[in-house]
Amino acid sequence: MASESKRSLHIAMFPWLAHGHITPFLELSNFLSLHGHAVSFLSTPSNIARLTRAHPELPPSIRLVSLPMPLVANLPGSAESTSDLDIDSVPYLKKAYDLLEPALTRFLSGGRVDWVIHDFASHWLPRAATRLGVGSVFFSTFNATSLAFLGPPSELISGRCHKPEDLTCVPEWIPYESTACFRLHEVLRHRRCMDEVISDFCRVGHVVDGCDFVIVRSCQEFESEPLTLLPEILRKPVIPIGLLTPATRVDEGDDDEKWKALKSWLDAKREKSVLYIALGTEVILSPELTNELAAGIEKSGLPFVWVVRNRSVPIGFEERVSGRGFVWAGWAPQTRVLAHEAIGGFLTHCGWSSTIEALSRGLPLVLFSGGSADQGLMARFMQEKQVGFEVPRDEVDGSFTGEAVAESIRRVMVEGEGEPIRGNAWAMKEVFGNMELQNKYLEGFAGILEKGVTKEQDGEINSQDY
Q: What's the average model confidence in pLDDT over 211-215?
């Protein structure tokens, strides 16, 4: 690479207002800053404040930029993230996000920005970036399988997904064997969080259509077929940037009494004997389904750690599982818990970040789709990859029984029929936990940015660049 191509760039990062999007954007920001580039990370005041508290070690080359949160009717004044809201209020957050366009455009026009890396929701951003002479990159925090399922931008913009049933089968443009599609209850749930003016599908279509190229949180070693297909159906260069596997901070939580208590409890358990249960920051089960989940966890007879965030467990549950179970209320240091040698499996809502964290440790998955975004696709795909087993649920209303939960847990954790799942998940450490491999993808992406490839030079991006 020529020396002039290595000049320091100014890169703006603009994620969607959700923890599962902000975190990988920050991971990517850290890498680019270590590569010698200046990064402006833009979000709203509460999100910036959270990042400042959670990451005091951020280098000076990453500047956290706070954009005033627009006021929108029916959106609580304190809500600036999906984790602050129930699913039916998320459309108002998307309206507020769209109203950030003037502030972001002002920043791009006056900040001497070379590239803006953005999320799916800012459908207006590629057009604004082109007008200002700023390169735009759509960062898909979803994996390649999910992005391929969505299909060509023209289909998304024209409204292919008019009926929920349209999303419950594998689309015609997928040429390889695949089981990745939604269940009806997942489609209906996700529709509750979409803005009625512009759907999430339309948002994705516009950002893909208008950007210079697409980057995907994935790698060829795990998703070779969809990564090969994506440039053809998106009609854009598509660059895998690796999995952005988070590092475990060895000192994280050492001075926290809750963590000390959990660590002491885990230290007394056998290796790989404990199931970790966490459903992310946004999944809220009804009291009836919470009771069924608790019943299944109890019936499994296995030791567990259950992160309940702000939700309560059924009355009497903790007393009945005393000594066998550890209920953690609130945010938990998930990467550190998963790294403990006593953890042997993960009952997950199937978010891509949580899946990456688990497979980087070789942990098999009990797949319990949270029912929004790409989580249903992830559940099917991980079962297809035989690194997990999905809890059987009613396809229309999403209901399930405690017995089904218990059977799924035991299959993944201890039963003989789950041995292939445990073996396949363990083998994934060689990909998901291989930091040298993943960093090679990031190095390739940084090189593309440094070359300054834009729409007019799409042909210059090819497999030799990553």
A: 98
